[in-house]
């Protein structure tokens, strides 16, 4: 399994018991849908390694307590501590309407209400406090805030995101 074919589920943040159980901080708004998983991919070095789950359950809201089949003591738990967990993209629940996953809109055209086609979405920058679309317009990078006030429509069939950007934002980047 390639990392590009998977989504980040969370990270192993601590041991739970001397029997090898671990706690995973999930990166999701709906932790309950991951309560009954049978397996996950654990990133070890550069490789995604399948780990089979004996038992998993929610622990204090956004933490998932996992008992892996092959992790039965503290030393084994220590070896996977801090590792990231992934699942295949096919496990993501389907979204409808204007909801989308970040990876889903890469390559979509961004259509502004005033300026028309302002480029293609090349990535989503979520490392700052404001999540941004990174859009490429003929070699120029535009940073467009990702929020519900700006996104007016998502057209999956045409692979377009329609936006209404704040006055002056597009001009700032394109020098219009």
TrEMBL record:
Q: Where is the RimM N-terminal domain?
A: 9-88
Q: Name one Pfam family in it.
A: RimM
Protein name (record): Ribosome maturation factor RimM
Statement: the UniProt record of this protein carries the keyword Plastid: no
SUPFAM superfamilies under this entry? PRC-barrel domain, Translation proteins
Query: Which PANTHER family would you find in this protein's record?
Result: RIBOSOME MATURATION FACTOR RIMM
Q: Can you list the GO cellular component terms from the UniProt entry? A: cytoplasm; ribosome
Domain Ribosome maturation factor RimM PRC barrel as annotated: residue spans: 103-169
Q: Which family does it belong to?
A: Belongs to the RimM family.
> What does the subunit section of this Swiss-Prot or TrEMBL entry state?
Binds ribosomal protein uS19.
Keyword list (alphabetical) reads: Chaperone, Cytoplasm, Ribosome biogenesis, rRNA processing
GO MF assignments: ribosome binding
Q: Which Gene3D superfamilies match?
A: PRC-barrel domain (2.30.30.240), RimM (2.40.30.60)
Q: Which GO terms describe its biological process?
A: ribosomal small subunit biogenesis; rRNA processing
**Organismal lineage:** Bacteria, Pseudomonadati, Bacteroidota, Flavobacteriia, Flavobacteriales
Q: Where in the cell is it found?
A: Cytoplasm
Does this entry carry the keyword Cytoplasm? Answer: yes
């Amino acid at each position: 399994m390639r990392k590009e074919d998977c989504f980040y589920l969370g990270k192993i943040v601590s041991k739970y018991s001397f029997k090898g159980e671990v706690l995973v901080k999930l990166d999701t708004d709906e932790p309950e849908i991951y309560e009954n998983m049978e397996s996950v991919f654990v990133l070890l070095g550069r490789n995604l390694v399948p780990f089979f789950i004996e038992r998993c359950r929610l622990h204090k809201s956004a933490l998932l307590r996992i008992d892996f089949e092959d992790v039965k003591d503290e030393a084994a738990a220590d070896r996977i501590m801090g590792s990231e967990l992934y699942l295949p993209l096919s496990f993501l629940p389907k979204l409808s309407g204007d909801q989308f996953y970040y990876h889903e809109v890469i390559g979509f055209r961004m259509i502004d209400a005033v300026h028309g086609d302002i480029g293609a979405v090349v990535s989503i920058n979520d490392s700052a406090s404001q999540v941004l679309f990174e859009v490429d317009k003929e070699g120029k990078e535009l940073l467009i805030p990702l929020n519900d006030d700006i996104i007016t429509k998502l057209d999956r069939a045409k692979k377009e995101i329609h936006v209404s950007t704040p006055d002056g934002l597009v001009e700032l980047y394109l020098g219009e």
